[in-house]
């Protein structure tokens, strides 16, 4: 029997997404965004929801661009830090020792050390309530060669991303491979 937990912000798992932006003066910033994910396949798009009170919110509005950076487990401390402090008060890149790289395609930085990056131009802004959802068209995906498999696609085990459990505020590694999507269920006979 299921127990009602009420209306809560629970979706398991939640990806750990680090949004890269520039402020008005051109200073790079990064923010750990708890609410986000893919939202369209054509055009390829990602959505991130950000509170107006954040430094990153103003940066996205001003620059009309952002990057989504996927850290590996080895950067869990830095990723968490990006969600703890405000870029308006601290230089997060100096504090973490990570390197902002200028995108040549969008007006936003990405994080050199993180193995997977989505470069996005802002296409839609949706006011939801406490958060504003920014939808960005993915104009390029950059991946370190070290995380690519034999077919040239991202290999999840090599990428080694981690997940966020919002209600309990915990990070978790990704579990073992279970099966190929759109294939593992084919031999199943449902009666």
Automatic annotation (TrEMBL):
Pfam families: Flavin_Reduct. Its cofactor is FMN. SUPFAM superfamilies: FMN-binding split barrel. It comes from Candidatus Brocadia sapporoensis. Belongs to the flavoredoxin family. InterPro entries: Flavin_Rdtase-like_dom, Flavoredoxin, Split_barrel_FMN-bd. This is Flavoredoxin. Gene3D superfamilies: Electron Transport, Fmn-binding Protein, Chain A (2.30.110.10). Keywords: Flavoprotein. One of its GO terms (molecular function) is oxidoreductase activity, acting on the CH-NH group of donors, NAD or NADP as acceptor. Residues 9-157 form the Flavin reductase like domain. The keyword Electron transport does not apply. PANTHER family: FLAVOREDOXIN, FLAVOREDOXIN-RELATED-RELATED.
């Amino acid at each position: 029997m299921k127990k009602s937990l009420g209306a809560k912000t629970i979706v398991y798992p939640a990806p750990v997404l680090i949004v890269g932006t520039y402020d008005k003066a051109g200073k790079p910033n990064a923010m750990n965004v708890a609410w986000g994910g893919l939202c369209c396949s054509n055009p390829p798009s990602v959505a991130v929801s950000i509170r107006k009170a954040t430094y990153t919110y103003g940066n996205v509005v001003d620059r009309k661009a952002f990057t989504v950076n996927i850290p590996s487990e080895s950067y869990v401390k830095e990723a968490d830090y990006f969600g703890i402090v405000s870029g308006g008060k601290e230089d997060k890149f100096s504090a973490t020792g990570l390197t902002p790289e200028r995108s040549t395609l969008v007006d936003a930085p990405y994080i050199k050390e993180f193995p997977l990056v989505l470069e996005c131009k802002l296409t839609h802004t949706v006011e939801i309530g406490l958060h504003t959802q920014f939808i960005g068209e993915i104009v390029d995906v950059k991946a370190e060669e070290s995380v690519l498999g034999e077919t040239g696609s991202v290999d999840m085990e090599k990428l080694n991303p981690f997940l966020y459990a919002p209600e309990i505020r915990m990070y978790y590694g990704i579990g073992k491979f279970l099966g190929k999507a759109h294939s593992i269920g084919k031999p199943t006979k449902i009666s």
